[in-house]
Amino acid sequence: MSETERGGPAGSLRFLVFSSSLRSGSFNTALASLAGEVIKAKGGDVDLGSMSDFDTVL
Asked: Which of 14, 45, 46, 52 could pair covalently with 8 via S-S, beta carbons 3.0-4.6 A apart?
């Protein structure tokens, strides 16, 4: 697998940071975003996800 296919420099770790809240202004979403920033600052590759990205039945 090439560096481009992995999504980052050789040896970097990829993380999925997922917020499970549907509420706007959620502390869970804010914390997930902050965690993503810290991971990026430490050299990791981050994909942010949220429950609002999926069709769900409430």
From this structure: 45
